[in-house]
Amino acid sequence: MEKAKLEEFNHWWTTSKVDEELALPFKRSIYSEIEGHINKRFILALVGLRRVGKTTIIYQIIKQLLEKNVDKTNILFFSFDEVSAELSEVLETFKEVHNKDFRKEKIYVFLDEIQKCNNWENELKKYYDLYPKLKFIISGSESLFIRKKTKETLAGRIFEFALNPFAFREYLRFNEISEDEFKYETKIKPLFIKFAEKGGFPETFSFETDKEFKEYIRSLVVDKIIYKDIPRIFKLEDPDFLRVLLELIATNPGMYIDYQSLSKQFEKDRRVIKSYITYLKESFLITLLGNYRKGSIITLRKKKRAYPADNALIYLYKPTIDEDFFGKMVEVLVVNKLKASSFWKNSGEIDIVHEDIPIEIKYQEKINSEDFKPIKEFMKKFNKKEGIMITKNEEREIKFEKGIIKLIPVWKWLLEEK
Ligand SMILES: Nc1ncnc2c1ncn2[C@@H]1O[C@H](COP(=O)(O)OP(=O)(O)OP(=O)(O)O)[C@@H](O)[C@H]1O
Ligand SMILES: [Mg+2]
Known about the structure:
This protein is of the alpha/beta class. The protein contains 17 helices and 15 strands. Helices cover 42% and strands 18% of the residues. A hairpin with a 2-residue loop joins β11 and β12 (357-362).
């Protein structure tokens, strides 16, 4: 590798600081948690959907290290996103440039989009085991454990942080709304509506036209993942079909994934559909929920439900959003905020079961007594004392012989810390 290439990636070697445009001032909520792990031995991995802010966090950490007087030549950044290279090439060139001894000096090594580097897991393991003073911080826009072998190779050596699109709290903070203002419904509601419609990709917050918004999400998120990222790892016969599946899920959030009927509908082998759904999930474009079973989230054979990972993906494909459909989008917000993994379907149906608590989303003007039926059924069946109903406006508690159902408006619920 040419030395100049590395120098290009590491401008602080000459300027002593990180470019302001790269280390943006706004810190994500997860930032301090990540920073708290920076001096631990294991490899830190930041993974998440494209365009959510992984690289920005890396630059923010680098900036902080420099401010703490870490020697600028002990910080190495490399991105495999646009340049193909071997990990050893990168590290050995760095060693030469600064005349470093990996055994003696603590060096922070940031490797962006590492999943694009061939055989990265074995190379990384080699360096990690050989040089305990090297601190690796890596990022990936697909699950890094997409291949079983990665998991085995790096078992016990890696600590993963999932980076999601902005949460509502972060969105408000980004819009300079202070926590004291969170209680003012008239102030928060309009921002909630905008957030629910357009989702949490930070760069889109300043966009003024739909055209700009859609072009951005289409080209930098969807097309990049479907036509570039996924085919790089898996042999994809029909990327267009992957996009069709994504559009189907985005426009029918919460749909049941029935491999058989999808197979018929699209004239594709069931196994193809199944692996395509997995690709969408592993690249963080969709979230899958399984049917709840007591004491376990493992579900056998029952159909899963699929949700898009962010409402921006819905807005991209949905030409008109009416009140009913907006209720669906609210459901997606809730699923993604909780990182929910199960729903429950019996005679009734519960949108989400999270930490054994049934949660229903009812975004409608008025809640009627039959709306409580499924939650009550669940609470009786599993002997639970608490249920939650996320509403449009209503806030109250319903007591019945089994326990309490708490009603809370969605904009308020989204602002709860957890
Ligand atoms: N903390 C932040 N404050 C303000 N804007 C941000 C922040 N983080 C990200 N952004 C905006 O989002 C854009 C994408 O961020 P970034 O490049 O860090 O994401 P990424 O996850 O690395 O994306 P990709 O997977 O495509 O490499 C940035 O160019 C910036 O405009
Ligand atoms: Mg990036």
